[in-house]
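Hey Z.,

So I finally got round to the betaine aldehyde thing we talked about over coffee. Here's the setup:
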Amino acid sequence: MSLYQIQNFINGKKDAGSGAEMVTLNPATNAVLAKGKESTAADVDAAVKAARAGFEIWKNMPAAERARVLFKAAQILRDRNDELALVETRDTGRAIQETEIVDVISGVECLEYFAGVAGSLSGEHIDLGGNFAYTRREAVGVCGAIGAWNYPIQIACWKAAPALACGNAVVYKPSEVTPLSAIAVAEALQEAGLPDGVYNVVQGARTCGAALVEHPGVDKVSLTGSAETGAKVAAVAAGGMKAVTMELGGKSPMIVFEDADLDNAVSGAQMANFYSSGQICSNGTRVFVHESVVDAFIEKLIARSKNLVLGDPEKPETQVGPIVTKAQFEKIMSYIEVGKGEGAKCVLGGHAVSENMPEGGLFVAPTIFTGCTDDMTIVREEIFGPVMSVLTFKNEDEVIKRANDTQYGLAAGVFTRDLSRGHRVVARLEAGTCWINTYNITPIEMPFGGVKKSGVGRENGRAAIEHYTRIKSVYVETGDVEAPY
Ligand SMILES: NC(=O)c1ccc[n+]([C@@H]2O[C@H](COP(=O)([O-])OP(=O)(O)OC[C@H]3O[C@@H](n4cnc5c(N)ncnc54)[C@H](O)[C@@H]3O)[C@@H](O)[C@H]2O)c1
Ligand SMILES: C[N+](C)(C)CC=O
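And the result:
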């Protein structure tokens, strides 16, 4: 397989970058996948300057024209779905059966949704009895956007689409672990007619991200990443009084009541823990099951989870691919050992898998711990791997209190046939996104984001518009101006 190139995209042109050498590995084989150079502070500066110039053109284009560009870019990406899905699988290690139906499509749907929204952006008229005021909804300016590695093209589009629809310009830095697909988004936008400079890509790790956040030409910062990075980035952004959107990590609860359809609940728990090898921010890794049904639930869960197919992520039959990096693999394995050491019972997995796996790939068996307690490390900390903790509960008040006993608040799920209870419980859960009788479904129409240390702001849905525009108030005097002097 020939090497991919890691590239910048600045002012409408691909660019090699001028910093230190950058290399990424294919998680399935540990072979070098891509090479290039990191962006320096000067590269970031060039990208921000291009964005500032692009912004002046883009914000003044009619919304219908902005919408046309986004629709066209969406179609270009849709046409390239299979080729880009393969890039995402090679970059992230996630199974092709996922990337072919989720990643590019989710990005495309986001571009289409916000293309549709662009023309409906409006302010309000305020009657002041003779005089009046109105508000204008204006673009924020240049958005510095930074992504995580698990869903690269989706994250790029979830940031670009609302930002561009509202008339902003963007400088995007993908994760240094998965740098490839951001350029495909830039190329699709350019082919669709986006003016040069409106969407730029810089490459690199923390230093490059920090240069972007600190840059005085950046008006808003949008980060998808861990809570620890979020706290640092938000603090720097606050120094420049920049608006932020923070899409961060979680340790979300999934609650299975005694009246739940257990087969659905098992499907939900699997989706909430093993999809993408467990590397999903909103995963429901604390599975609270009513004590009266826990034995039946675990029996069904093990019976179905032991058949999950691990292997080469490029093969269509593979359901669980390798872990993205050695560092992430070691982190997951260390949490598994801590879980065993703290007394949780490992009823499935709990080990690495190498037999019949592609050489060089780092695979973790889907792992289920039962007999977990609220104070265990594996129950409190985000693992970001295929590790599920099952806990039991006796009643509704108790489980809500325990579900909320976390520093995070990204997501939560409730399985029950009693819909009154479903709505009552989610109303009391401290989470930005909740599901009743399903898990991890994120349509673009629905706002997504967290509370507490899981973040601020929302992506998707009309709610995202609030975070990519600001309101200007205009007071209009219709009579004479009286002065007391
Ligand atoms: N809420 C969401 O929508 C969502 C989605 C996906 C992933 N995540 C979270 O992301 C994390 C996994 O991703 P990760 O390991 O890439 O996260 P990370 O926090 O290590 O890195 C995220 C991004 O921030 C950059 N970065 C790191 N330090 C920085 C700094 N000081 N200044 C500017 N940029 C900096 C990185 O280069 C990367 O691009 C998990 O915690 C996961 O839950 C959240
Ligand atoms: C945002 N989401 C849940 C689709 C992928 C996050 O890891």
